[in-house]
Design goal:
By secondary structure, the chain is an alpha+beta fold. Helices cover 55% and strands 17% of the residues. The chain has helices at residues 8-20, 25-30, 35-70, 74-89, 117-120, 129-137, 156-165, 197-228, 234-259, 264-275, 309-315, 352-391, 397-406, 428-439, 461-471, 492-508, 518-521, 524-528, 534-552, 556-565, 570-577, 581-595, 602-619; strands at residues 93-100, 105-112, 123-125, 141-143, 169-177, 180-189, 278-283, 288-292, 322-324, 327-334, 337-345, 415-422, 444-448, 451-457, 478-486, 515-517.
């Protein structure tokens, strides 16, 4: 282990050895090493720990899904969910309450880590305590210090039970089955602690699985009821038995899809193969995620299925199967969030068992979408880090070049950089996904501060910016600034600043909802920008000439000043500079080689003259 007296290279080596040996973040932070090395290693270690936590959460959700597929006693699954909630969130205890319709309150169903008999026998009226507020509002709530939190209605009975258990911090999320509230899943701690939104979301996912277990309980109860009616009517029993058989077959089929890593398209296919007819799955924005069977096709002017009243009803009804003229629809719900809508066109009237098959398909689809959302969030988080490193020039040139290659982009270019902004903070994540979908494969899209940044192959940033605005037609209106082309990873920070400045100029000019490159705005971006950078503007316009003069000891800048002051006359400029006119012509030829043959075009010449004047003002 390196000490504080060791050379920096030995300290860095020792720190890397600790990272390789899976040392904790605290141990890495305590090790001596240069600050820039330690900062990078701590970021890697933190990313490693976060990745492991997400893997553990996803693994736990998949394990519970397997238990749902194989466990005959759903009560055992509920116990497993509560136990996993305590482990994954790292709390002192976890518990689950169920709603008692007769009494109008909730009672303890499962606890893990509880030591108080008084607490385990608590009943919570709707509206009382944190759990009662969750039950009455059907929304998750959490607090780092329950006893001091005045958002909740404190009662003597509840406070006594919570105090006897020693609970301080609590997080609770509702269980919703077929639009009905059935209970609350809690994680609690005996010391103050905050709950992150990631932890609240994970608890919501576990609550969704608990709801699946309750659905299983209901399906099993229905099957038992059907079998109990055997003595009443032989034909009825036979039909019910067939229904149970179909439900079991559907259960096995959907379980196989999940366990084999299938997606929502596989669930849709399995549903049609079980029932016949056709099925279409829409996302929450009304886009088709999957379709199987002879379903009505989507048209350019709009999807005719979305126009059906039964589909509209399902999109606004929490998880209830509705039917009209042979078309069935049900909302895809998880933790009271509408993830999509499943529409089924059956070739015959759906019996109860068939309807349960559709409902089960909706539940399994919600589970798969949750898994995919977590995977998408992890991938987007990685893309965000890459984009931040690229535009912030973090890490070595080789590391950033490798990041571009891993993202499927050629570091040699040409690339264009687009900066987009639109909607409010709550729409930012969804807008980033929309931009990524619109640009497609072979691009890199990530979030940086309040911006959405995209790296796109191409050499026309203005056309790419305009095209992106046109493609993102759903959701909030976006404004896009572009820069490029870029041929080296080291040019990305400058390109980002230029594109961001162009975006600000578009907004200041009242051109929100449009796209443009800096070359299309000229010095307008400098004039109307909320935070103009004059030095950067001068550098952007005159950079190649300034670099040439600095490296050769020449004075091409002075020649340009004299040339423009002489009304673009080489002869008058030569007289002012006391040189031969051929010398001025040679120098102007060098300027053309550095700036491009269009440097004397009116718009470009105006930019150059403004930059020369600003440079002189900056020097005074």
């Amino acid at each position: 282990m390196a000490s504080e007296d060791d050379p920096p290279i030995d300290q860095a080596t020792g720190l890397l050895e600790l990272l390789a040996s899976d040392a904790s973040i605290a141990r890495l932070a305590a090790a001596p090493a240069p600050e820039e090395i330690k900062d990078l290693v701590l970021r890697v270690g933190t990313a490693r720990d976060e990745h492991r936590r997400r893997e553990a959460a996803q693994s736990a959700l998949l394990d519970i899904a397997r238990e749902l597929a194989s466990e005959e006693d759903p009560g055992t699954v509920l116990e497993a969910i509560v136990r996993r909630a305590r482990t994954l969130l790292g709390t002192d205890l976890a518990y689950l309450t169920l709603y008692d319709p007769a009494a109008g309150d909730t009672f303890m169903r499962v606890t893990d880590g509880s030591v108080s008999a008084e607490f385990q026998s608590l009943r919570l009226s709707l509206g009382d305590g944190l759990g009662g507020l969750v039950a009455s509002t059907r929304k998750p709530y959490w607090t780092a210090d329950y006893s001091a939190d005045q958002r909740f209605s404190h009662t003597t009975t509840i406070d006594s039970g919570v105090g006897d258990e020693g609970i301080i911090a609590i997080c609770g999320t509702p269980l919703i089955v077929e639009s009905n509230f059935v209970g609350v899943l809690f994680a609690a701690n005996r010391s103050p602690r905050p709950f992150s939104r990631t932890e609240v979301g994970l608890l919501g996912n576990l609550a969704a699985l608990a709801a699946v277990a309750i659905v299983q309980t209901r399906a099993l109860a229905e099957a038992q009821t059907a079998l109990a009616a055997l003595s009443e009517a032989h034909e009825t029993v036979r039909q019910q038995a067939l229904g149970v058989e179909r439900a079991a077959a559907a259960h096995d089929r959907f379980a196989s899809v999940v366990l084999e890593g299938g997606g929502v398209a596989d669930v849709t296919r399995a549903l049609v193969e079980l029932l016949g007819g056709w099925a279409v799955l829409f996302d929450d924005a009304g886009e088709r995620l999957s379709s199987f069977g002879p379903a009505p096709t989507s048209r350019t002017e709009g999807d005719e299925l979305l126009a059906l009243p039964v589909v509209d009803e399902a999109r606004h009804d929490l998880g209830r199967l509705v039917e009209d003229d042979g078309v069935h629809a049900i909302g895809i719900i998880a933790a009271r969030e509408q993830l999509g809508t499943l529409v089924v066109g059956a070739p015959r009237t759906l019996e109860d068992a068939d309807q349960r098959t559709v409902e089960r398909a909706a539940v399994v689809t919600a589970l798969v979408l949750l898994f995919e959302r977590q995977a998408d969030a992890a991938r987007q988080s990685a893309r965000n880090r890459i984009v931040t490193d690229l535009v912030g020039a973090r890490g070595s040139h080789d590391d950033r070049t490798l990041s571009l290659r891993h993202a499927g982009l050629d570091p040699r270019g040409p690339l264009c950089l687009l900066v987009a902004r639109g909607g409010d903070a709550t729409q930012h994540r969804a807008l980033a996904l929309t931009v990524g979908t619109a640009l497609g494969e072979g691009t890199l899209v990530g979030s940086h501060d309040d911006e959405i940044i995209a790296l796109v192959p191409g050499d026309d940033p203005d056309a790419l910016a305009r095209s992106l605005v046109a493609r993102v037609s759903r959701g909030p209106r976006i404004t896009v600034g572009g820069s490029g082309p870029i041929g080296d990873v080291d040019d990305l920070p400058t390109a980002h600043e230029e594109a961001a400045r162009t975006l600000r100029a578009l907004l200041a000019l009242g051109r929100a909802g449009t796209g443009a490159a800096a070359t299309e705005l000229g010095f307008a971006g400098l004039i109307v920008g909320s935070d103009p950078d004059v030095r950067d503007y001068v550098r952007t316009v005159l950079g190649p000439v300034l670099d040439y003069d600095a490296s050769r000891g020449s004075d091409l800048v002075g020649t340009l000043v004299a040339y423009f002051a002489a009304g673009a006359s080489p002869r008058h400029a030569a007289h002012e500079l006391h040189v031969h006119v051929n010398t001025v012509a040679q120098r102007l030829g060098r300027v053309a080689a550095l700036l491009g043959d269009d440097w004397q075009h009116p718009e470009r010449a105006l930019e150059l003259q403004l930059a020369l004047r600003l440079r002189r003002l900056l020097a005074t």
